[in-house]
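Intended use. Records like the one below are meant for learning the mapping from a protein sequence to its folded structure. Do not use them to infer anything beyond what is encoded.
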Amino acid sequence: MRQLSTLEKLGILADAAKYDASCASSGTAKRHSKGGKGIGSTEGMGICHSYAPDGRCISLLKILLTNHCIFDCHYCVNRKSSNVPRARFTPQEVADLTLSFYRRNYIEGLFLSSGIVKSGDHTMEQMVETARILREEHDFRGYIHLKTIPEASPELIHRAGLLADRVSINVELPTVAGLTRLAPDKNAGTIEHAMGGMKQAIEEAKDARKRFRHAPRFAPGGQSTQMIVGADGASDTDIVGKASRLYGNFRLRRVYYSAFSPIPDASAVLPLKRPPLVREHRLYQSDWLMRFYGFAADEVVAAAGPDGNLPLDIDPKLAWALKFREQFPVDVNRSSREMLLRVPGLGTRAVGQILASRRHRTLRLEDVARLTTSLARIRPFIVTADWRPTLLTDRADLKALIAPRQEQLELFG
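Structure written out for the chain above:
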């Protein structure tokens, strides 16, 4: 077999890593290389595959160590039975690529995942060795995210946490039945046991840092996970419930949602087409409601339809407000922060400004208008000094009045 060049390997393994969405880096420790010490930095706007508010593209070298895999998960393009080109990096090659790209100012860190080759322990050893080379031999101070393997030994996963800024263990699918059917080589109990061990190690390290000044940092960016949406029959109710339990049980930094994408030579048990991308978007919005707006999981899923899925034409917060109109209108001059956060169109920043402003003056409708981009959306749900919606909140056609209008975009517009 012809030996692949580094560039050819990079093309294969970077493309194979694109299905993993969990690569943000918020919350990590701040390090820099000022004074000529070390290489790299985690300071600035943060690192992720996105654009910063100033338009700057922030990126990681996001690759797999190898796309060879002994598992045969139906939804995975790199599964054992998949007919795709295979490649494999050594730990030294990944470290060299990371340093080379960093020096060219292409990247600000590394996101490293891998297929399972030989065994979970063997693969995890290779990933940990990559991070060790960067940290210990080159004093690399940039961001490192390692996708850990739940089947690997706890000792190896612990070493990964000592070297990485963030670690993640994918739960893959929201239900045990879905995981059993589509990923027969994986076990939900093993995955959650590994996540529990990681949670305990992170908490112990934080406690040690409080008591001992030079205690080592352990995954300062926390742990995250990812769920595939639309590969099995799980509803949004199942997904939101699973996410809520993961946040509560393992104190995850983030749960990521990835819409299933059809793959070459797909298994017959998979759907023929991907779910609407807006479904993924609605799940992220529901996630925000639980994390920042004080909604419980059962409140979010109460906005779902009879099929258990969130509406696609309106966001979950508006869907909840329309379904529970007895909670409204909310008086912006008297109501609690918790109730203000439930008003469609009011974000956390706007609510904070309302609370600060009403200490000094009584708010009128025009004052609220300055804090939002769509006053028409908010008016049916609030009371101000000079405004009361009267029967507007109870109108049968309220959704049609305030829901975003659907537009057919031009292909070449």
